[in-house]
UniProtKB/TrEMBL annotation:
Biased composition (Basic and acidic residues): 23-38, 473-486
Pathway the protein takes part in: Amine and polyamine biosynthesis; ectoine biosynthesis; L-ectoine from L-aspartate 4-semialdehyde: step 1/3
Uppermost EC category: transferase
Organism: Streptomyces viridosporus T7A
Cofactor(s) of this protein: pyridoxal 5'-phosphate
Record EC number: 2.6.1.76
Pfam families: Aminotran_3
Region (Disordered): 1-38, 384-417, 473-503
Gene3D superfamilies the UniProt entry points to: Aspartate Aminotransferase, domain 1, Type I PLP-dependent aspartate aminotransferase-like (Major domain)
MF terms (GO), sorted A to Z: transaminase activity
Low complexity composition bias: residue spans: 394-417
The family this protein is said to belong to: Belongs to the class-III pyridoxal-phosphate-dependent aminotransferase family.
Protein name (database record): Diaminobutyrate--2-oxoglutarate transaminase
UniProt KW keywords: Aminotransferase, Pyridoxal phosphate, Transferase
The organism's taxonomic lineage, starting at the top: Bacteria, Bacillati, Actinomycetota, Actinomycetes, Kitasatosporales
């Protein structure tokens, strides 16, 4: 049988699969684990073989449809295959323009930079330069750090625990991007539930700021003045932790007073995700440089560093792929669509409504330690309400106590529950919902729905998530109770009812 795809004979396996050849698709789940490493990957955690996608919906090779709250790891601000993105890509292809060039001036690049500058915080846009990097976020981080080192003549870097992206050792990529003689100092990032000082709230953020102020005190502290500081306004891989606005403003004052350039990493938070076009705008802070990636490429690989003109240097080299014309065209379309249609404001309103409902649900489930987030970047931290007696759910970070819902100091936070989080992800997938996990112990359910998500879609997402949470918690903890050692003279307890997962 001969297939055609957009007028072409479908002879290769890839084209046959795109054309709908189920024979070409059915072996994918079998071949993937045999060919790829056993390291943790999305493909292993989410055994879905996507063949079509539109907006928030993915269709798998098995014909099932899923609501996607992963959004390509935050790269899909408008969801899958948005018409404005497809049109922008087709125009470049049909024009005969080169698909990739070195770091040359092109009409496509000029349009992207012009649209990007329209969205930047005013204090930065007025005197900004833009530098295109390689396709990975680590390339942009390395470029930003190189710039501040060249400008200051210093080598050290200040970063924060839980930063994105993080290697297995837990340090941010600032460590990997630094030369061998550079020192990276990790600072405490303020949060409530697992406050590093056991206090949370305004007092915890105050202590985190004081710690930073001490480190920035100069050689007397044992830490030389650094070349720069890099932070996320909302930590993504750290567990969806929004930085308090007052804390961020204080950090900006501390760095500015000491001529330490502040780099803000907007890889996961940019392009309207948090309810402002750039998350740093919530606090009114103007950074010295911004690392931009993920959504700015309209689903295609693109990273840039936007920085103050006085941080410029003449060091050659921007990686192998600084001139991806398709990504720039797609990025221009996304930036313009988000700006012109007020999608950041939509994300703020819809995210607030989703957080309200999730917090109501959290009051009914002891396994939810905290619900937090900003805009459509939402985290639900799962904990073990029974203390974790099977060894798999241990991993409390921070000494506690946590902050209670009324803002006062509460009891110690429960141990993290990565096993439960993995079970929730599986239950979500069974219900046609794709979610992500984050946090140091992978115990935080992370939702990154597209900015185009409707109230109706959000309601379906929350219904499926609530059902998955309730089922996973009931099954996990009921099973544990039946497995606990019992005194030989005691009659065995009756199994908890309703523990069977739905068919």
């Amino acid at each position: 049988m001969e297939f055609t795809y957009e007028g072409r004979k479908a002879t290769s396996p890839a084209v046959r699969a795109a054309a709908g050849d189920t024979t070409a698709r059915e072996g994918v789940p079998r071949r993937q684990p045999a060919r790829e490493p056993t390291a943790h990957t999305y493909a292993r955690a989410l055994p879905v073989v996507p063949v079509r996608a539109r907006g928030m919906t993915i269709e798998g090779a098995d014909g099932r449809r899923y609501l996607d709250c992963l959004s390509g790891g935050g790269t899909l601000a408008l969801g899958h295959n948005h018409p404005v993105v497809l049109e922008a890509i087709r125009k470049v292809i049909d024009s005969g323009a080169p698909l990739h060039v070195p770091d040359l001036a092109t009409p496509v690049k000029d349009a992207f930079v012009t649209e990007l500058f329209r969205t930047l915080p005013p204090g930065l846009a007025d005197r900004a330069h833009v530098r295109f990097c390689g396709p990975a976020g680590t390339d942009a981080v390395a470029t930003a750090l190189r710039l501040v080192r060249a400008a200051t003549g210093r080598t050290g870097v200040l970063a924060f625990t839980g930063a994105h992206p993080a290697p297995a050792g837990g340090s941010p990529d600032a460590t990997r991007a630094a030369p061998s003689d550079a020192q990276t100092t990790l600072l405490p990032y303020p949060q409530d539930y697992r406050c590093p000082f056991g206090i949370g709230g305004e007092r915890g953020a105050e202590l985190a700021a004081r710690w930073t102020e001490t480190v920035l005190g100069g050689p007397a502290t044992g830490v030389p003045l650094p070349a720069g500081m890099i932070l996320e306004p909302v930590q993504g891989d750290g567990g969806v932790l929004p930085a308090p606005d007052a804390w961020l403003r204080r950090i900006r004052r501390l760095t500015a007073d000491r001529s330490v350039p502040l780099i803000v990493d907007e890889t996961l938070t940019g392009v309207g995700r948090t309810g402002a076009f750039w998350a740093v705008e919530h606090s009114g802070v103007t950074p010295d440089a911004m690392v931009l990636s993920a959504a700015i490429g309209g689903s295609l690989p693109l990273t840039v560093v936007v920085h103050r003109d006085d941080l410029d240097d003449r060091a050659p080299g921007a990686g192998t792929f600084p001139g991806n014309q398709l990504a720039m065209a797609a990025g221009t379309a996304v930036l313009g669509h988000v700006r012109e249609n007020g999608l950041a404001a939509h994300a703020a309103g819809l995210g607030a409504r989703m957080l309200d409902r999730l917090r109501t649900l959290a009051g009914e489930l002891a396994c939810v330690g905290e619900v937090r987030g900003r805009g459509l970047m939402i985290g639900i931290e799962l904990v073990d309400p029974e203390g974790g007696d099977d060894g798999s759910d241990r991993g409390t970070t921070g000494p506690g106590p946590a902050v209670a819902p009324d803002g006062t100091a509460g009891g110690r936070p429960r141990p993290a529950a990565p096993g439960l989080a993995a079970a929730v992800r599986r239950e979500c997938l069974r219900r046609g919902l794709i979610i992500d996990l984050s946090g140091p112990c992978a115990s935080v359910v992370r939702l990154l729905p597209p900015l185009t998500t409707t109230d109706e879609q959000a309601g379906v997402v929350l219904d499926r998530l609530a059902d998955a949470l309730q089922t996973a918690a009931r099954d996990r903890f009921a099973h544990r109770r039946t497995e606990q050692p019992r005194h030989p003279h005691h009659a065995p307890p009756r199994p908890a009812g309703g523990t069977e997962p739905p068919g």
